[in-house]
Amino acid sequence: QVQLVETGGGLVQAGGSLRLSCAASGRIPSINVMGWYRQAPGKQRELVAVVGSGGGGTNYADSVKGRFTISSDNAKNTVYLQMNSLKPEDTAVYYCNLRPVVGASTYWGQGTQVTVSS
């Protein structure tokens, strides 16, 4: 099993910044994709950004391109999400996700609340 622990959420004013971290532990697949999803009240969970292991590529939602940056530290099994120029519409619970490239398994963190005030 894989455990994911997120930290770094909070309350910030519009235009501010936050950095989320997600540390993975357990039986981590050697080749995987890690990333962030978010879910706002009354809305479906949506992809924010993902990154492949071993220096793999990244993918971002159009709504966050140019404002958010995903990065990873493979030695620490940790993925980060630097969020700049935050907007009220970024308010959501942010979930860390890890899925192996091969197989149907997927793992989720417990979620961390990000609230952006106007």
Topology:
Blueprint: E1 2-7, E2 10-13, E3 18-26, E4 32-39, E5 46-52, E6 58-60, E7 68-73, E8 78-83, E9 92-100, E10 107-108, E11 112-117
Parallel strand pairs: 2-11
Antiparallel strand pairs: 1-3, 3-8, 4-5, 4-9, 5-6, 7-8, 9-10, 9-11
Key descriptive features of the protein:
118 residues, mainly beta, seven-stranded mixed β-sheet, globular
Detailed description of the structure:
This protein is mainly beta. Helix content is 0%, strand content 56%. The chain contains no helices and eleven strands. The strands form two sheets. Strands 2, 4, 5, 6, 9, 10 and 11 form a seven-stranded mixed sheet that branches. It has a four-stranded antiparallel sheet with strand order 1-3-8-7, with no helix packed on it. The protein is globular and about 40 Å long. The N and C termini lie far apart (40 Å). The model has no long low-confidence stretch (mean pLDDT 94).
Helix content: under 10%
CA-atom Rg in angstroms: 14 Å
**End-to-end distance, in Å?**
40 Å
Strand content: over 45%
Overall outline: globular
Structural class comes to mainly beta
Q: Would you identify the regions where 5 or more consecutive residues have pLDDT less than 50?
A: none
- Summed over residues and divided by their number, the pLDDT gives a mean of 94
- Number of distinct beta strands: 11
Secondary structure tally, helices = 0
How can the largest sheet be summarized? 7 strands, mixed
- Secondary-structure element order, as H and E? EEEEEEEEEEE
